[in-house]
Amino acid sequence: MAINPLEFNERAEFGVEGTTGYNPKNGNPTKGFMPAFSRWFGYINQSLNQQYTLAGESITNTKLIAIRHDAGINDQLNVRIGGDVYKIILISSDDRSARETFDLLTLQKVVKNG
Q: Over 90: is that where the pLDDT of 88 sits?
């Protein structure tokens, strides 16, 4: 699978869940996504084998994206694309010493109850 960095035409924000403010009525902290940095990315089509494997693990609502290799990306971060927040469930990192290296991130949509 060839990755064309010219197709990295969307921006994703990487960050963690944290306190974004306080409820004015009761003073309780409100939690939300707190962006730390952003990266350009491109969508990658998941193969049928990947889709079936994830479905067998009961992992749904996933996306596969590619970014330029970044050692700072880890599975403790969340990713916001548009208005949706995703958790990183798998990182396929390319840490060769080549000039053009990429990381494939499998993301699962965070669904909040309530």
A: yes
Q: Which residues contact 12 (CB under 8 A, 6 or more apart)?
A: 38, 39, 40, 41, 65, 67, 79, 80, 81
CB neighbour class for 113 (10 Å; exposed up to 12, middle 13-18, buried from 19): exposed
H or E, element range at 16:
strand 10-22
Residue 83, CA distances (Å) to 4, 33, 48 in order? 25, 10, 27
Residues 103-114 pLDDT 10s: 999 999 987 754
R_g of the chain, CA atoms, integer Å: 16
DSSP state, residue 40: E
